[in-house]
Structures are given as C-alpha cells and as structure tokens.
Amino acid sequence: MKGGFFMSFVRRAFLYVTRKRTKTLILFLILLVISTLVLSGMAIKDATETAQLNVRQALGGVFTLEQNTNDSTKWVNKEVGGLGYQSYYNGASLTAELADYIMENTSGINGYNATYVDYAVPKHPNGEPLELLESDGDEGGMNALLSGFGDFNASISAYASTDTKFDSYFSGGYIELIEGRHLVPGDENVGIISKELADLNGLSVGDILTLQMSEYRASVGGVDYADTVTQIEIIGLFQSTVKSTTTLSNWSMDNALYTTLDVVRHVRPDRGGDGYDNIYFYVNDPSEMDSIISNIRSLPEIDPTDFVVNVDSSDADSVIKPLTNMNKLITLLIVLILVVGAVVLYLVLANRVKERIHESGILLSLGVGKVKIIGQYCIEVALVAILAFGLSVFSSGFIAQTVGNQLLDYTLSDSITNTETGEIQEYDGITAVGSDSFAPQFENKGNLTNIQVSIGSQSIILLYIVGFAVICISVVLAALPMLRIKPREILSKMS
Known about the structure:
The chain is α+β, with helices and mostly antiparallel strands. The protein folds into two domains: 2-50 and 320-417 and 451-494, no CATH class; 69-305, no CATH class. The protein has helices spanning 2-19, 21-60, 96-105, 142-146, 168-171, 195-200, 215-221, 261-267, 289-297, 314-355, 357-365, 370-412, 457-484, 487-494, and strands spanning 62-67, 75-79, 85-89, 109-123, 156-161, 175-180, 190-194, 208-212, 230-240, 244-245, 257-259, 278-283, 307-310, 424-427, 430-433, 441-442. The strands form four sheets. The protein has a six-stranded mixed beta barrel with strand order 4-5-11-7-9-8. A two-stranded antiparallel ribbon has the order 2-3. The protein has a two-stranded antiparallel ribbon with strand order 10-16. A hairpin with a 5-residue loop joins strand 2 and strand 3. Helix 1 packs across helix 12. The radius of gyration is 34 Å and the shape is elongated.
C-alpha cells in the first residue's frame, strides 16, 4: 500500500512538472545557473590548489648548497698573462661525493644536481666551429663590440651537471628533453644540446662534438690552446618550452651545452678550483624543508665556514600568495552563490506554494498530510534539479576554464618581476655593463600555474548532495505559511 502511495506520489509530481512547462522551464534555468556557477567555482578551487602544489614542488622544494665565499683568507689571486690578476675562491670544493654523502645521511630528498657554468667553443670533429643561433635579446651592439676579441663570439655556455633531470631549467619546465637521455652521475665525455642547434649544424644523437677553449681567452690566460681540445658524444637533444632572451646571442639557451665537469675543466684549465658552483637538492615534501636543512647543517662534514645552505622561496611565495588569495575568493564566491541561489529559489517556490493553495486544500480533504504534500513539492523540484545538475557538468567545464584563466592572469599580473639591472659585471675576463646575469632570461613559465579544469566525480556528488539539501530547505521554508495554517483554514480559503 505504501509503495503504491509513493508511486502515485511521484506520479503526481511528474505530471505537475510536465503540465506546467513554463514554470518548470523557469525553475530549470534557475537551478542550471546556480549549479553551473557552484560547480565551476568548485572546479576552479580544486585547480588552484593543484597549481599551488605544482608551484611548491617546482619552486618551493629546492635548497642550495654553496661555498661560503665570505672568508677573504680563502681567496687566491692568479696573474693572467701579465695583464693583471684573476681572483677565485680556493676553499673546500663542492663535489658529487659531498652531495652523495648528504643524500645517504638525510631522508626526504628526491635527488640533486651539482652545477658549474663556463664557456667553450663548439666545433665539428674537423675543427670547423658550429654555426650558432641568433637570439632575440636586445644586445645593444654587444656582439659587435666583442667581435674584436677573436673567436670569443663563437663560445657558448657550457653547463656541467651531474643529473640534468634535476637541472633548474629542466625541472622548472623551461626546457624539455625530446630525444636521447639525460646526463646521469657517472657519465663521461657526453653532452646534450638543443634540437635547433643540432638541426642547424646537421647533428643528431650519437654524433661527436669537439669542444675547445676560446683561442683569444687562451692567449690572454697563457694557456696552451691545443691542449684544451676534448670530444664528447651527443646523447640528448632538448628544446625550449618558453621564450628566452640573453645579452649575447652565443650565450643563449638555444646555443647552450650540457656536459660533465671533467669536460668543462679540461676545456677551461685557467679556472681555479676543481668543484662545482652549486648543488641543488630537491625535497619530496616542501613542508619538511626546515627539518631537512636543520639535519644537513648538523652533519659533521658540513663545516659552516666552508659551506652554506640557502633556501630562496621568493619565487614560490610570489606565485603562491596570489593563488592563495584567489582560492579564498573562489570559496567566498561559492558560498555567496549558494546563499543567493537559495534565496532566489525560496522566492520562486514561495510563490508557487501560494498559487497552489487550492491544490493543497484538495489533498488535505482527501486525507493527505502536510508533510506528504511538502514531500511532493520536494520531488517536483528534485526531478528538475536532476536534469539541471547533469547539464551543468558540461556547461561548467567551459566556463570554469575560461573564467579561471582570466582570474589567474589578473591575480598573477603583479607577481612577475624584471630582474635586469644596469650593474657592471665581469664575465670570462671581460667587463661590460649589462644585465645582472648573462644567463638566459626566461619569460614567466605559465604551465606551473595553468588551471587545467576537470569536473571530478567527487565535485558532482557534492553538488547533488548540497543541491538537494538546499532544495529541501528552500521548499520547507517556502511552505512554512501553509504549515502554520490549520487544514480547516486552508479549506475555508478555497471557498
């Protein structure tokens, strides 16, 4: 009996929804707009949280071990060809063995990359220099000025690395490996160059490349130019994923070379020291950074007079802060949408209940209780909501992606800074006025914070749960006037 009553209950709700098409359509559109906005907000919120995690992993989960160059007693002056003196730090070296020692005695570290940067002239095995790519940098005539320094303009940046998978340019997504493999610990006489440079010179993975010190630099430093020749095998090719500029075309990222420390040191014997410039460690969980660094500083092999551990979170903070603000804004908007939507829904339903006082009186006269009448109203709205919520899954995906990207561009617009200065810098023995670093300057890497919106099953389930809860509350509030009136009063109003 109860089952039959329930079926008639649902049947009456269905008949009302299909009979009152105009009112049903209005209710459908209201629920569709509310559910689309709520689901879009939930999707954007989830995406911004993912973006924050990506930024923390890429920018916030790295610390650097460097030499403590503040001790003046560990600096050495070396005469350079009777033209003056070159200073270099001669303290304890940063070595791969030291990095391995830290890895073995510290948990929570995913990997490391020890780096050293210098400059070399790349050549074909027959001794012919490679043709280099031109950059889009504003060089201000710098290349023309340096053309008087012999083959100095033919030199490129040579990055000595232990594991290029953890190189800051690769891990940050500024460049990516597209052929071959990465440099790994234990490699010797191998290298990685850009795909563009390889294509320009007819090179591919497996070919041999010759590296040599600049003849001009060798003559200035009193180095036997012929003794600096070394050959490497190309084991990989990379390509840039974002645009970069540099002060000198020959030192651009597209002309750069990744190789091992033994190769760079052989090509540049004029350089003092035998270790790396920096060792970059990548942690598994950025939230454990402080405890990991504290543990490293307490290791007996890490003498604070020789080494310092640095964490620069400014890049991560500058991106995460607007993302956090955006996340709070989206949360507030979702709450406001629910509140405003509930109010609008209440007003619409209150008017419908008022118009149906005659129908309610008839049901009461047939012995149908007020609670069951309200239940019918809830089912009527629920039937419409099922369709509206289902359609909102498709409409919210497009809206969330479009609106989310615009919000992201707006919130991050002030977090991108320009680090160029007009300071006087010295590179490879040549003093020039230029940028703070001759290293490539990459544009803001957008894929760290791109909002890739996907409507997950959890969000859909939550939408239905919250949506039906709001519907039931709105229906009950809208029917309160009827609940307060006694059945006889309702019947008397009918007449």
